[in-house]
Amino acid sequence: MTTSAGIPQDLSSDFTIDAFHRGRFHLVQPKGGGHRSGVDAMLLASLVADERSVSVADLGSGAGAAGLAVASRLENARIVLVEKLPLMAEYARRTLALPENAFLSDRITVLGADVTLTGKARVDAGLHDGVHDHVIMNPPFNHADDRITPDALKAEAHAMTAGLFENWLRTAAAIMKPGGQLSLIARPDSIVDIIEACGKRFGGLEITPVHPRPGEDATRILVTGVKGSRARLVFRAPLIVHGADGNSFMSQADDLNNGRTAYHRRRR
């Protein structure tokens, strides 16, 4: 679904308004450039399975797809969208101003901040210690030797920097309550960096490989962990997104993508 409603006329050609969770909420996204959210964001959101009144920080939130998906499914969740790029943060603010999102906009705030900040600079930016029950993230995933897109906004959103997971997970651990849950989606070749960055910060890691279709290699991994846990790592059964016949969703993936269910940890 695409419409220009709610967007100033002189900007409407630069945006689309796209429906998620089968029209339950809508997202303002860049039309011709920048990062556009889809299944990855919905799978990330599905990792938050908590009916309590919780605070969720979405690091590097972009236009806010994953955070809004959490709020759409969990009526007691409060979300902070953390985004350093002013233009993407503006997309998020325009998203929250849409009439279609009025039912959840009062539970979501946008924070313009760099998640790699440390110490006093991080706190001064609004990323305070020990606040959140959940931290979710879909960090940039393109390596330096990947083909670089000519779209500057998309390149910055997708380009992985040295020590990325160490920097992002350091912040995640700092702003999370003891026993809080980390959730992230990444490419499989980042698994070593993720495990190393979790270190003694997060334990009880559960890693799920995500395969586009049966018989195809995994293109993503879903990772959850608990702050301060010393439980062992578990590799879970693979999640298959599409059937072998084409692009139709497998039943479980369709439910996760459309917010009908959560992807629960094995150890709750």
From TrEMBL:
Protein name in UniProt: tRNA1(Val) A37 N6-methylase TrmN6
SUPFAM superfamilies: S-adenosyl-L-methionine-dependent methyltransferases
UniProt keyword annotations, A-Z: Methyltransferase, S-adenosyl-L-methionine, Transferase
Keyword hit for Thylakoid: no
Domain Methyltransferase small, residue spans: 42-187
High-level lineage: Bacteria, Pseudomonadati, Pseudomonadota, Alphaproteobacteria, Hyphomicrobiales
GO biological process: methylation
GO molecular function list: methyltransferase activity
Keyword presence, Transferase: yes
